[in-house]
Design brief:
Blueprint: H1 2-21, H2 29-44, E1 50-55, E2 71-72, E3 91-100, H3 102-106, E4 113-120, E5 131-137, H4 151-162, E6 170-174, H5 180-189, E7 192-196, H6 200-207, E8 216-222, H7 223-236, E9 239-245, H8 248-251, H9 260-269, E10 278-280, H10 281-284, E11 290-296, E12 307-309, E13 312-321, E14 326-335
Parallel strand pairs: 1-3, 6-7, 6-8
Antiparallel strand pairs: 1-2, 3-4, 4-11, 5-8, 5-9, 9-10, 11-13, 12-13, 13-14
Helix pairs in contact: 1-2, 6-7
Length: 346
């Protein structure tokens, strides 16, 4: 799978990022998301594969594209039989977030990306559109920090694993009322807090790379993005744990589902018999082969955003593979029909 579509999924996230970046700073998050979805789907349908969206747009609404269960790829088209041999074709599950951080794009803020994760059929956890308590940490702390422990305990463990003082650690937390006590505890323990408004996939990724000055992600974010983060962290060898949050009182900012009871019923209908189960990266992304790809829309810690110039643009992407055990940063200059006035390489 890595050899067949590794390069093409980079182009998938690149096209989504370019389309969304045209709406950067225009204050319209919905359009920034819609054009990313359209561009991602269009490029995905040109890949020689039979793919199925397991995490996508609008689980409970009538999203017209990249909805849960939609089939994508050349080999899902009506005339596929003439050039696709179903006996030789691997079925692929795909988790997508064409514009992770729509508000970041709309208001011209850092950290938005187009992201996806793929694996063979059944290789990605089909997370409901709930929230998830998350803990991400560097590879050195894998299996040592624990989501069941307090933030204070985990910071002590993390400091020992990284051979750092606690006051040298930086923890990313989403700026939400539900995290007020968590933020207070982290600060009282001596660590520093980096607050973000959106985009915790990027924060989880940064934990696995030295030099980002981000050492942990803590708190509650969206569950589907948790699966995408887990796919990347599994490939990178980092620590990731997630626990579904189904009680609206815990989230405080609204939750899909009218009540805790109805959310528990929904989980039961999805054959999730233990709603309080803590998942690790291998359980959320369990496939034999897992690929992750991201392309910066706006500038971030790991990747630059899309930069337009006369006749083209430049993108920076990241593709991570469990098969080849690589994390590749891809710097691409896109040249369109119009002759470029200049190509900026610096």
């Amino acid at each position: 799978m890595d050899n067949v579509i590794g390069l093409e999924i980079i182009e998938v996230v690149e096209q989504a990022a370019i389309a969304s970046a045209r709406w950067m700073g225009k204050g319209d998050k919905n359009t920034a998301d819609e054009v990313a979805v359209e561009a991602m789907r269009e490029r995905m349908n040109k890949i020689h594969m039979r793919g199925r969206i397991v995490i996508g747009e609008g689980e409970r609404d009538d999203a017209p594209m990249l909805y849960i269960g939609e089939e994508v790829g050349i080999c899902t088209q009506e005339n596929a039989a003439q050039f696709c041999n179903p006996d030789e074709l691997m079925e692929i599950d795909i988790a997508v977030d064409p514009c992770e951080g729509t508000n970041l794009v709309a208001y011209g803020q850092n950290g938005s990306m187009a992201v996806l994760a793929i694996s063979e059929k059944g290789g990605l956890f089909a997370a409901p559109d709930f929230y998830m308590k998350k803990l991400a940490a560097p590879p050195a702390a894998k299996g040592k920090v624990d989501i069941n422990k307090s933030a204070t305990e985990n910071l002590k463990i993390l400091a020992e694993c990284l051979d750092r003082a606690i006051d040298e650690l930086v923890v990313v937390v989403m700026k939400r009322d539900r995290h007020n006590d968590l933020i207070k505890e982290i600060r009282e323990a001596g660590a520093r807090v980096q607050l973000i408004s959106d985009g915790d996939v990027s924060a989880a990724l940064c934990c696995a790379f030295a030099g980002t000055n981000i050492h942990a992600l803590m708190g509650i974010g969206a569950a589907p993005e948790g699966v995408i983060s887990a796919a990347a962290m599994r490939a990178l060898g980092g620590h990731f744990q997630g626990q579904l949050i189904y009680d609206p009182e815990v989230v405080k900012t609204g939750l899909i589902g009218e009540s805790k009871a109805s959310n528990l019923e929904r989980l039961a209908s999805m054959d999730i018999t233990d709603p309080d189960k803590i998942y690790d990266a291998y359980e959320l992304a369990s496939g034999n082969t897992v690929l992750f790809a991201a392309c910066g829309i706006t500038p971030g810690t790991l990747m630059q955003g899309v930069r337009f110039f006369g006749g083209g643009c430049r993108t920076e992407s990241l593709v991570i593979s469990t098969q080849s055990k690589t994390a590749r940063f891809v710097d691409t200059v896109h040249m369109w029909d119009k002759t470029p006035k200049s190509i900026q390489l610096h």
